[in-house]
Amino acid sequence: MAKLRRFINISEDIFVIRNLIGAILQGVGLAYLVPVLLVWFYPDEIKLSVYFAIPGVACILLGYYLSRHIEQVEDVNLRQAMMASAFVWLFASFVSVVPFMAIAKMSFIDSYFETMSAWTGTGLTMMNHLESYPKILLFWRAWMQWLGGIGIVLVALTVLIRPGVAAARLYRAEARSERILPNFVNTAKIIVQIYTLLTILGVYLYYINGMNLFDAVIHSMTGLGTGGMSSHDLSIGYFHSLAIETITVFLMILGATNFTVHYRVFVNRSLKEFFRDIQVKAMLIFLILIIPLMTFSLIRFGHVGPIRALRESIFHAVSAITCTGFGISDLSKYPEADKVLLSLLMVIGGSAGSTAGGIKLIRVALTFESLKWTIEQAILPKGAVIRKKVANYEFSEEEIQEVLGFTMTYFAFLLVGAMYMMLRLGVKFVDALFESASAIGNVGLSVGITSLMLPPDVKTVLILLMWIGRLEIFPTLVFLVGVAMMLPRRAEK
């Protein structure tokens, strides 16, 4: 009887997960078709559109087949939503490799690395000589980063999935908790509208400051999406423009800010709402503390002039804490102290409810506050009540434990990845730590470790770190444990 109940539960899980995956896969298929529109502007690339049209239609048809019973899905538990969400990021990256393999002639592992990096908004790349590639392929990378910034699931919520329990569970499974409106699907639509409006603003600012339209679109999408993939090998450094760098810093900070804050700014028409947010304040405090240290280190040990040192420090510090990954100089030549400081910023990350990665500023603030509360608990009389509140957020003991558990697990994966690269490649620990922090934080800054020359096992480790970091660890662990539990039980049948 117990085996029968287990089998029924597994069958229900598979039924729900299959339908959710199918619905989201249709969104991936629609995304695949968008680059085809580029042939209107670049007609000489029309032959390449087949590598987007065919996989796109195939994804839509497969998604429709898998989700044909989605109307029967009345309830979704968090485990099922997490497993569906985790699998979709793996599968979306898998089905997105076709253009890279067919057009760029990349191997499967390199193509999968590129698509995982793009969808997760990381920005680490296996591609060189970017200017030599067709525009449609460069747009595909940026388009994936733009969509991945707000989340595959969130896009599907906006277009395909009806309101209800399934929408709420999927929204939370993708490491999101902000709710602008009571309805999750309406919240998703508001986020997409704000995101689109800010992206258009970025395109306009870039264009009037000297970028051609294609580059303006690419860098606005990947800047606001905090992905950092560029259409040039030298990234933002290619333009040699202070104005372009300033606009990029502006977009990166916007991308790393909670969408609820953007909504309040738009509704109340007041910039005060922006600077009132605890996470924005924390971001600015970290930048104010670390930028002078980086500048001093670059002048002292990097042999860079004061103005150039300050310019690079501001840009790269913002790029690191917002988890964007744009660069204006070669970080492999940076002093080790600066690499450590940038690694710290990448680990901290941007705001929860933004397109940024990392541990997130609210968790960092809560970790420091929990230490203060522990000290207060020891000092105050027994039975004293301490309100565990950070700004306008009040946390329960369970939420605090969850945050501390997440932070410890994050550091564990970070260190395991760094140790593996150090031992496998024979690189310095600080360089391995930097690359590991960049991958799990979905950043994209590199000190030169990530390249085509990496062994397949190290590329796989980086792919896993990017996947784990994008879903904030727990959904991926639930997915792996769930699959491990399903396999032997199916064998029992």
Describe the structure.
The protein is mostly helical. 67% of the residues lie in helices and 1% in strands. The protein is built from 21 helices and 2 strands. It has a two-stranded antiparallel ribbon. A hairpin with a 2-residue loop joins strand 1 (389-390) and strand 2. Helix 1 (2-33) packs across helix 3 and helix 6 (135-150) crosses helix 7. The longest helix is centred in the N-terminal third of the chain and has 32 residues, at 2-33. The protein is globular and about 70 Å long. The model is unreliable at 1-8 and 159-167 (pLDDT under 50).
Helix content bin: 55-70%
> Strand sequence of the main sheet, in spatial order?
1-2
**H/E series, N to C?**
HHHHHHHHHHHHHHHHHEEHHHH
Any idea what the radius of gyration is? 22 Å
Low-confidence stretches: 1-8, 159-167
Mean pLDDT reading: 86
Overall body shape: globular
Described by strand count, sense and barrel closure, the largest sheet is: 2 strands, antiparallel
- How many helix segments? 21
Using DSSP, what is the number of strands? 2
Provide the structure class: mainly alpha
Q: Beta-strand percentage?
A: under 5%
Distance between the ends: 13 Å
